[in-house]
Amino acid sequence: MVEAWYMDESAEDQRAPHRLRPNRAVSLEQLRHLGVVYRRLDADNYETDPCLKEIRRAENYSWMDIITICKDKLPNYEEKIKTFYEEHLHLDDEIRYILDGSGYFDVRDKDDKWIRISMEKGDMITLPAGIYHRFTLDENNYVKAMRLFVGEPVWTPYNRPADDFPARKQYLKFLAEEAQ
After folding, report:
1. Measured between alpha carbons, how far is 159 from 83 in angstroms, rounded to an integer?
2. Fewest CB atoms within 10 A around its CB: which of 22, 90, 128, 169?
3. What is the pTM of this model?
4. Residue 115 and residue 179: Cα distance in Å, rounded?
């Protein structure tokens, strides 16, 4: 089951948990108010899972691939890890389904504070277009994830500041409506 918390400001290894002391947990409900959608699926049977098939049909996720992030499998590993950890947004939703291993997605809350979302095997997350976020491996240094897209994949990250994009403006409008 996914776990999320507010992050400390420590400059230690990005792969560390970075929990505040005392811990400030973040609920699935709080994540939903940020537009983040979480699902738990059967990663052992992802190739035949009817739940995944239905999600893909309902959300029109017509394109997918599988990426393995570890030193032995990912070309330009060190460069990619740095790129993934730069704060950015996308113009489309980012959908990731963890098939094996673990890692962290960090998202900004409405007050611009970092929330760390711990992802492990069986966790699926949808980050809405326009949300500032980043990804890192945890201390296990390994994750295998399915990437899902509506139509052809668009990989372009827009590093912060990127507030002039329509996707960001739409996301800020969503946050304002959620606050009412």
Report:
1. 10
2. 22
3. 0.97
4. 18
